[in-house]
Amino acid sequence: MTLPAHHIEPLITSEAISSRITLLANEITKILPRDIVVIALLRGSFVFTADLIRAFYATGVRPQVDFMTLESYGSGISSSGRVTLIRDITENVEGRDVLIVDDILESGRTLSYARDLIEKRGARSIHIAVMLEKPGKRKVDIIADFVGFTIEDAFVVGMGLDYANSYRELPYIGVVAFD
Ligand code: 5GP
Ligand code: MG
């Protein structure tokens, strides 16, 4: 697939991200019990989740980890507005304290879909952690309990976030700028 000419402008350094994740893990540890189920929303959150659970190693949280694949973006840079469940978790969340982890909170549709599903299955508590959030873009009433960084309205990549499934490997967050 040919993408329009673009380049990546660095926005958040990998050093800033890793110190923020350490602080987030500490915040989460103060509020949630030790025994939680982390549900990472794929594909975008796999890098953030990997860093976060390793930070939990130091803070004493001992999570079970599962994955749910949801799609709302296709290959473009704007949301289709419809969330599709591509792959479900296999863990039983009934009576469990759940932390849903996503890369970025924008309209809120993805997280609200995931939260509703986990709620229906009888989780005891549900908290949400996101690496990034874009304010002023919410279409659905949802608040993340733990937020890494609040960013301006731009299409970002890196740390698991993609543009047409590329750039997930960038160890920093960058803005896609069209030439
Ligand atoms: P929401 O459902 O809140 O509108 O969007 C959340 C999902 O849209 C994220 O999990 C992510 O997959 C995608 N998304 C939203 N904003 C961006 C962005 O700036 N960059 C990338 N790569 N994905 C985004
Ligand atoms: Mg996503």
Question: How large a portion of the residues is in β-strands, by DSSP E?
Answer: 25-35%
Please state the CA-atom Rg, rounded to the nearest Å.
16 Å
Listed once per kind, the bound small molecules are: guanosine-5'-monophosphate, magnesium ion
Distance between the termini: 18 Å
Percent helix among the residues? 10-25%
Number of helices: 3
How many distinct beta strands?
9
Largest sheet: 6 strands, mixed
Q: Please mark out the parts with pLDDT under 50 across 5 or more consecutive residues, or reply none.
A: none
Name the helix and strand elements from N-terminus to C-terminus, one letter apiece. EHEHEEEHEEEE
Largest sheet strand order: 4-3-2-5-6-7
Structural class: alpha/beta
Mass-distribution shape = globular
Averaged pLDDT: 95
Write a compact overview of the structure shown.
This protein is of the alpha/beta class.
List keywords for this structure.
179 residues, single chain, alpha/beta, 6-stranded mixed beta sheet, binds magnesium ion, binds guanosine-5'-monophosphate, 9 strands, 3-stranded antiparallel beta sheet
Your description of this structure?
- The protein is an alpha/beta fold and 179 residues long.
- It is built from three helices and nine strands, in the order βαβαβββαββββ.
- The chain has helices spanning 14-31, 46-59, 109-120, and strands at residues 6-12, 37-42, 64-71, 84-87, 97-105, 125-133, 146-150, 156-157, 173-178.
- Helix 3 links the parallel strand 5 (97-105) and strand 6.
- Helix 1 (14-31) crosses helix 2 (46-59).
- The two termini are 18 Å apart.
- The mean pLDDT is 95.
- The structure holds guanosine-5'-monophosphate and magnesium ion (MG).
- Guanosine-5'-monophosphate (5GP) is lined by residues 44, 72-73, 79, 102-110, 155-157, 161-162.
